[in-house]
Amino acid sequence: MISQDNSHSQPDGTTAFDGIYTPVTAEAHPYLHTLGVQFGTCPAGQARTLLPLTASHMNSWGITHGGVLMTLLDVSMANAARSLVGDERGVVTVEMKTTFLQPGGVADANIEAFASVVFQSTTMCFCEAEIRDGERLIAKASGTFKYLKIANSAAQLRRMCR
User: Fold this and answer.
1) Residues 147, 151, 153, CA angle at the centre, nearest 5°?
2) Which of 4, 12, 70, 72 would suit a FRET pair with 34, their CA atoms being 20 to 30 Å apart?
3) CA 92 to centroid of chain Cα atoms
4) What does pTM read for this prediction?
5) CA distances (Å), 10 to each of 7, 36, 48, 153, 158, in order?
6) Which band of pLDDT confidence, cut at 50, 70 and 90, is reported for residue 49?
């Protein structure tokens, strides 16, 4: 659960989240940059992601599109999984289950995702995440991620798409 004070208390009583979010750069993640995603700094095995909602995130009913919510859950869990390995390894989503509990946020609001690692093996990582609009729980997800060596993974994945 994400606390109202934008912090996540650690067992030793310290606060792991400093309340500062960094916008995603276009060079690092073009799609996430276009959405306006911002990453928070968290301890290993956790991730926190903020999305300031705009009209472009809305569906025809004027609430956040489910695909936007799923993207936020996916990237948050992936960041939690990646935080446990070195920069030479990345992750790809193998499986993801999402449960939508309430309508998503509306334009000019912020939604926030918090993710954590449930279990990690040498090749796979199992995570959970939730999205909140303040105290209101919007969606929950669980996902399985496979670790890949970054060196040639992007080129190999692109070749598989042809």
Assistant:
1) 55
2) 4
3) 13
4) 0.86
5) 9, 28, 15, 35, 40
6) very high
The pLDDT value recorded for residue 15 is 44
Among 89, 103, 114, CA closest to 1: 114
pLDDT class for 17, splitting at 50, 70, 90?
A: low
Structure tokens at 36: 């306006």
| pLDDT band per the 50, 70, 90 thresholds, residue 8 | very low
Element of type H or E holding 75 = helix 66-82
The Cα 73–Cα 77 span in angstroms is: 6
DSSP state letter for 41 = P
For residue 28, what pLDDT is reported? 87
Residue reference for tokens 């956040």: 64
Q: How far is CA 96 from CA 16, 44, 55, 69, 141, in A?
A: 26, 21, 26, 13, 7
> How many Å separate Cα 106 from the centre of its chain?
19
Q: Which residues share a beta bridge with 148?
A: 90
Would you say 117 and 127 are in contact if contact means Cβ atoms under 8 Å apart? Answer: yes
The gap between the terminal CA atoms of the chain, to the nearest Å, is 41
Q: Cα 118–121–123 angle (5° rounding)?
A: 120
Residue labelled with tokens 């390995």: 85
